[in-house]
Amino acid sequence: MMTERIKLRRGPGRRVGSGRARRDGNTSNGGGPQGKAYAALDLGTNNCRLLVATPEAGGFRVLDAFSRIVRLGEGLDREGRLTEAAIERTISALRVCATKMAKRRVLRARNVATEACRRAANCAQFLERVRTETGLEVEIISPREEAGLALAGCSPLMVDGFRYGLVFDIGGGSTEIMWVERLDADVSAPARNDVVRPPRLRLIDSVSIPLGVVSLAERHGGDRISDLDYEAMIALFRDPVGAFEARNEICEHVRHGEAQMLGTSGTVTTLAGIHLKLPVYDRKSVDGCFLDFDDIANVIRHLRSLDFAGRAMEPCIGEARADLVIAGCAILDAMCRAWPVGRLRVADRGVREGILFDLMGLGGSCAGVA
């Protein structure tokens, strides 16, 4: 079993180098009372997400946010390359991000890319186009660092009273799973929807499984999914999840009531929104809420009974993600079957928040991960 202490590499951040952004750190246009605005951009296989924030009271206050489904990894499993259509969609979204950073006069930013860029043969050419056409420097991070940033970002939602935590992030091209120990189980500040100082955690082990909602949906379809195809998606996780369990004996801690489960991804936030019967997605209602495994099973059963058009009518899904949600359900189902914790806490936060903690020097060293 791995028991080393993992420290997040502290990304230096960059003064925003676009011609549309100032280098002097002047944040008079929305920079917040402390005069410094920071930005975190997470370019994934499916989504492009941005947060701009300013330090406040041991955490940060969000000044601006952006999220767009770009499907950068569309066709990557088949072609091994980023398609021109995906590149154009992504650069269009990144232009919006660059404009928002310039408007807020961001002092320091860190822009990261994950699985799609790690795998694409033409990624270097894509990133050069991004630099030329948007002024943004984007770095590719490793699966291990991606997991650490996601963990740091959602760690304020860890619940007191549990020594261990099983944390996962279901992405478009990969799924990150982390097994952590909480070192300050007596933290008194409750988790809130405005970001607070993260707890101290020790990352015991992590695994990045190169399967996500986009890759699975492309293999198995996005309309009606047969029982056979649904179980086939779950089966793809049996070996990597089984190996992770064998290394860490997580089920033993689950049986003794020592472990909690925390999920951060579009899949879990979508299922939470449907369970809560939200007429429109509301982050404040979803972030930090709990789903019992029976609730998860009921929502999955409902979604599997629908075709693409039916899922697209769900207010927390829409057409842009109706073909992906069943693949996400299968991944979540695989983890619930492997580790019967019984209850999941939902996080609408992750890599971007982890980057901001790091850039602002919050939570001590390593952005809250000891």
Q: Provide the low-confidence segments as ranges.
A: 1-33, 187-196, 364-370
Order of strands, widest sheet:
8-7-6-9-11-10
Oligomer: single chain
Q: Could you state the order of secondary-structure elements as H and E? A: EEEHHEHHEHEEEHHHHEHHEHHHEH
CATH class categorisation of the largest domain: Alpha Beta
What is the CA-based Rg, rounded?
20 Å
Indicate the percent of residues in helices.
Answer: 25-40%
CATH fold-type name of the largest domain:
Nucleotidyltransferase, domain 5
Strand content: 15-25%
Spatial shape: globular
Q: Architecture of the largest domain, CATH level 2?
A: 2-Layer Sandwich
| Count of individual helical segments | 15
Structural class: alpha/beta
Q: Characterize the biggest β-sheet.
A: 6 strands, mixed
Average per-residue pLDDT, rounded, comes to 86
CATH H level, superfamily name of the largest domain: Exopolyphosphatase. Domain 2
Number of strands: 11
End-to-end Cα distance: 18 Å
Total domains, how many? Answer: 2
